[in-house]
Amino acid sequence: MKNLKSLLLVLSIILFSGIILSGCKPKADTSATTEKSAVVEEGWVTLFDGTTTDGWIGYNKESFPAQGWVIEEGALKCQGSGHGEAGGSGGDIVYNKPYKDFRLQLEWKISEGGNSGIFYGALINEDPIWKSSTEMQVLDNVKHPDAILGKDGNRQAGSLYDLIPAVPQNAKPVGEWNSVEIMVYQGTVVHKMNGETVLEYHLGTPDWDAMIAGSKFKDFPNFGKYREGYIGLQDHGNDVWYRNIRIMPL
């Protein structure tokens, strides 16, 4: 009996010790897994991560340009040709998947006197791209003449090119990064630049149709039509950099 009591005492001590130790055992760190899940749940899709041009092709081409566009310090750079509007050796590029309703976010910086643009709603096989695609202007507002051309600043950075000016005009100086977002949802389009909404318009409305009828785009029947379209970056013959390009389909 004495031996049995001793055995039961030992077993009780072991069991009690196990409970204490299990309670003191550090919990597994699930923060990384939770963070990863949160990113997936947000719905953002990376279009350019700074390391590869996968998914990007020349406009009306089957592959990425062999020259004129390079990856430089985590950014997608268009190498200027010095020929201005005649463009460079790379030409415009597009992501090879069309999008309809979305939020598009990216950052850009421009060279001195530089000009470029972010296209969205572009059709393939209609050359040049601007005959179908609306464009957020990318510009050196100080030196490039487009800043004082057009009407009421509608060719300045962040504007719907040659149609609606960006207000407020909050583009950063040459060489500094600007953050932008373009949202398209059921015909409503919003441009944001450096954290502020700078313009809003509505595709297919009487106001939109009247504005296009009075613009240089009036002779292009596919310009600004609401449909799935491609996202593109413009080669305007000047150095320009783009990075952190991502999209959230809506």
Characterise this structure.
It is a single chain. With 250 residues, the protein is α+β, with helices and mostly antiparallel strands. Helices cover 17% and strands 30% of the residues. The strands form two sheets. Strands 1, 3, 4, 6, 9, 10, 11 and 13 form an eight-stranded antiparallel beta sheet that branches. The chain has a five-stranded antiparallel beta sheet with strand order 2-5-12-7-8, with no helix packed on it. The radius of gyration is 27 Å and the shape is globular. It starts with a helix and ends with a strand. Mean pLDDT is 87; it is low at 1-41.
Per DSSP, the total helix count is 3
Structure summary, number of beta strands = 13
Largest sheet: 8 strands, antiparallel
Low-confidence stretches: 1-41
Assembly level: single chain
Instruction: Summarize the helix and strand pattern as letters.
Output: HHEEEEEEEEEEEHEE
- Rg to the nearest angstrom? 27 Å
Relative helix content:
10-25%
Strand content: 25-35%
Mean pLDDT: 87
Outline type: globular
